[in-house]
Each structure stands twice: as C-alpha cells, then as structure tokens.
Write a structure and sequence with these properties.
This is Nucleotid_trans domain-containing protein. Helix content is 49%, strand content 10%. The chain is built from eleven helices and five strands; from the N terminus they run H-H-H-H-E-H-E-H-H-E-H-H-H-H-E-E. The longest helix has 28 residues.
Length: 231
Amino acid sequence: MAITTLRMKYIWFPQISILASDSLRLVKKFLGKTTTNILIISIALGILHQQYQVYEKQMENLQEFYDPDTVDLMLFIGTTKRVSSFTGSMQLMAAVKACVGRNILNHPHFEDKWIRERTKRLYSIYGKYSIKKVHKIMVDEGADYIVVEDSICYAPSDGCSTNDLVDMSSGIIPENGIQKFGSNGRFFNKYKRFCDAVKNQDDDNVKDYFYLVFQNPTFRVYKVIKENDYL
C-alpha cells in the first residue's frame, strides 16, 4: 500500500519503524554489532544522498506569504476580548483559532452530526434570511462576531458555491436556476442574501442587530448586538 499510495507511508510509519528496529536486532545476531552499525550508517547516508537534491529543489521554491487583508483581519481580532466567539467560513475560523486563539463556533477539522448541523445554522450568514432570523441564530449559538468574506458572498452562482449550497439546503433554487439536486425547490426573493443586506448600516433594522466594527477589501466583521449591550 505504501508503494502505491504516498499517504500510507505516513500512516504506517510507526509500525514500519518498530519492524525495522526489530529486524536490525535479528541482523545484529548474525553480523555483529560493528557490521550492523556500519549497515545502519550506510543506509542513512544512502537515503540522505538520494533525497538531498529533492530537498534543495523544495527549498528553492520558498515563497513569501503576502496577504495583507488577512493579516489586518487577524490583527483586529487580536484586539478583541479573549473570551469573544467568532463565526464565519470554516476555513477562515481555523485560521482565527490558529493565529489569534479566539473561540470559534465551527472548524473544518473537527466534526460530528451536531457540529455539522450547527455549521448549517451558522452558514445562514450566506443565505437568504431576514436580519432578525440570522440575529436570533447567532445569539442562540453564542456568537459575538461574524466574519463575512466578500469572495463567498458575491461568488457567481454555479451550483457549487457556498451560497448555492446554503440555498439548496433550505429548499431554495440557486440563482442560476439549477434544479438537478431536486425538483421541489422554490424561487425565493423575499429577503436579500444576508451577507449583502447587512452592509446597509444606515438601516435601523440592521444596525440594531449587527454593527460593523472592521472592514477591508476582503473581509467584514460585525458585532452581534445583544440585549446586555444596551445596559
């Protein structure tokens, strides 16, 4: 399996190491300690010689990380209270947890049925829901901030975008009209997509529930207004 599939080399590495060490113990009985040590060193040097050119090639491919919008976002999140909870796309929340250490409500690397259902509720920020309904969901889930990505919010409808998946999970036909995932969907235009509607901070129906606290060309962060915020 390790010969045909690269990932199997890593999965079985501990077992292979144990077998290799035991094999060397058996070889030592026949060849002696000195010969066995020479054999081990020879194998190590052979592997080093074989892989060194690959290592040099990979090191030449080093690239500088350059994503100022994400850096600015993380710096802002770092100014919030350490007990604050954030929600957004799963991949972005993983970065928030890794870089800033804030509480997150969904994560791509840990899941079960309950977490998947929670993520579906949290992804209402990319669905066609009223401001009040999304606010209730965020309060119920304990979110203090939501992070909206314009690349997701304004992605073209192709049947596979996050917006389309959120719509289809709610029984709404995607904007491109694709119905291949079921014929029981409905067209729905009562509410604008939340991630777009929440931009209108001049509307009392918006700013009474969500307040824009950070924005750059890629991300928008909104504070979830709760009852005790008015006290």
